[in-house]
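Example record

One chain of 171 residues, shown exactly as stored in the release files.
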Amino acid sequence: MANILIVYYSRKGQNYWAGSIRDLPKGNTEIVAEMIQEAVGGDLFEVDTVKPYSSDYTTCTQEAQAELRSGARPELKAYLDSLDGYDTIFVGYPNWWGTMPMAMFTFLERYDLSGKRIIPFCTNEGSGMGGSERDLKKICAGATVERGLSIRGCEAAKSEKKVSDWAKGLV
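Predicted structure tokens for this chain:
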């Protein structure tokens, strides 16, 4: 089996969830990332920004939109020393304004991903993968970017079979 990394950004706290704002103790993307690890093994790495986003959901969405518009690359708390030991990298994120949070761009652009297999997954409340797969192909030059899995955030905790079958089918 390939050496697997599951790297993800996930938002805890206030989230849009099935038509309303709900306070989540664990982010939806984190839940899916853990399901992938349970299904296929691998190492988990959570991307986290130095400057936290607002705890208020609406303000957070405004911050995320401003980052996207400006092409920001927020500073991250930590990085992996190297991705050399990994052949397959699952990349998870919530769909923010049609793509990944800019923190994921910050993380991925730091590494040479040539020859790697990138497998995206995202959580959302109906917007699917948006343009994130296209964006991943641009920033992961030399990598093979597979078709991603979209999971509705409000269904994340109940998606173990779907996630497991999908992940196992790819590795």
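Notes: Helices lie at 28-40, 57-70, 102-109, 132-139, 160-170.
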